[in-house]
Specification:
Order of helices and strands: HHHHHHHEHEEEEEEHEEEEEEH
Strand order of the largest sheet: 6-7-13-10
CATH superfamily of the largest domain: DnaJ domain
Low-confidence stretches: 78-88, 117-164
Strand content: 15-25%
Mean pLDDT: 79
Number of strands: 13
Radius of gyration: 34 Å
Structural class: alpha+beta
CATH class of the largest domain: Mainly Alpha
Number of helices: 10
Distance between the termini: 112 Å
């Protein structure tokens, strides 16, 4: 006859993946040996893990539904088929299932820790029988008195959001995000599509596409990092890597950024440098500003237009400055007459 995995988890045969996962959480917490001291608890805990391993996997569940536990495990002489002709037609390439035998491994994959009760009930030591540290101090969900299931359910939902906090994490994945000065000035939303690999405990690989949304704030600078926790490739017994986007500024043909200020270079000839000139400076907010300069423009001279730079990241209502720098175009040749006029005019 074999084990009835649906009965073990207390779910209907048409239960959804979400219902199966919730049922596993409830039963696993109920019969976890660190909490339940009944002599049969450990065996039930193991059966619950095996039932979840089968019913949470589409292919294994399909074989089990058709041939039962014996057929799933390759014992066809003992298997009963629901096929109308009583024949056995296993999917090509399917290997007989064998439970790995470690229910704590399954628990850790779902909850992020193998021993949730050490800190919850005030015991000491902090390690479980499989050597994992209790990670319930990372819980951020809180108990929910109105939850329709065990109070431990809302507790473990916090662990789910913590993405298997007790496991070793892969190194972060860094991705550069290039933005224009206009985008960093105004702020914008960027949607980045990622394609991640997911490998289950049986070594089966799937690909998942996901769109990560980045809300670029006004005034962000190059080097700003935006972290999406645990969005990297997923492997058994490892915490997925964080994906970190690093802001990079695209080179701009008009301005150069210096912290919160913008720099704009004005080309002037020697006559303008000596006698003064009018400058039309483009503004990143739009339009231009006309500036009259009556001073002598010397090498290194700058002119500052207050409040026309980039927004301050921590207070975008305030802005840096627009700094005008000057590139003086000296003549390559002067006639003798011009030289004499300059000698007479200059001190």
């Amino acid at each position: 006859m074999g084990k009835d995995y649906y009965q073990i988890l207390g779910v209907q045969h048409n239960a959804t993946d979400d219902e199966i996962k919730k049922a596993y959480r409830k039963m696993a917490l109920k019969y976890h040996p660190d909490k339940n001291k009944d002599k049969n608890a450990e065996e039930i805990f193991k059966d619950v893990a095996e039932a979840y391993e089968v019913l949470s996997d589409k292919e294994k569940r399909g074989i089990y539904d058709r041939y039962g536990e014996q057929g799933l495990k390759g014992h066809f002489a003992d298997a009963s088929s629901n096929d109308s002709h009583g024949t056995y037609s296993m999917p090509h390439g399917f290997k007989a299932y064998t439970f790995h035998g470690d229910p704590f491994q399954t628990f850790s994959q779902v909850f992020g820790t193998g021993t949730p009760f050490a800190e919850l009930f005030g015991s000491t030591g902090g390690t479980s029988r499989n050597g994992h540290f209790s990670m319930f101090d990372n819980f951020d969900g809180g108990f929910n008195a109105n939850h329709d299931e065990s109070p431990f359910m809302s507790f473990t939902n916090g662990l789910d959001r913590d993405h298997r906090a007790g496991l070793k994490q892969d190194p972060p994945l860094l991705k550069e995000l290039y933005l224009s000065l206009e985008e960093l000035y105004s702020g914008c939303t960027k949607r980045m599509k990622i394609n991640r690999k997911v490998v289950n405990s049986m070594g089966q690989e799937t690909r998942q596409e996901k769109v990560l949304e980045i809300n670029v704030k006004r005034g962000w600078k190059e080097g700003t990092k935006i972290t999406f926790p645990n969005e990297g490739d997923s492997f058994p017994n490892r915490k997925p890597a964080d994906i970190i986007f690093v802001i990079k500024e695209k080179p701009h043909q008009t301005w150069k950024r210096d912290n919160n200020d913008l720099q704009y270079t004005v080309k002037v000839n020697l006559k303008e440098a000596l006698l003064g000139t009018k400058v039309f400076a483009p503004i990143i907010a739009g339009g231009v500003k006309e500036i009259t300069i009556n001073e002598v423009i010397r090498p290194g001279y700058t002119y500052t237009i207050r409040g026309e730079g980039m927004p301050l990241p921590k207070n975008p209502n305030y802005r840096g400055d627009l700094v005008l720098k000057f590139d003086i175009d000296f003549p390559k040749h002067l006639s003798d007459h011009s030289k004499q006029l300059l000698r007479n005019a200059l001190p």
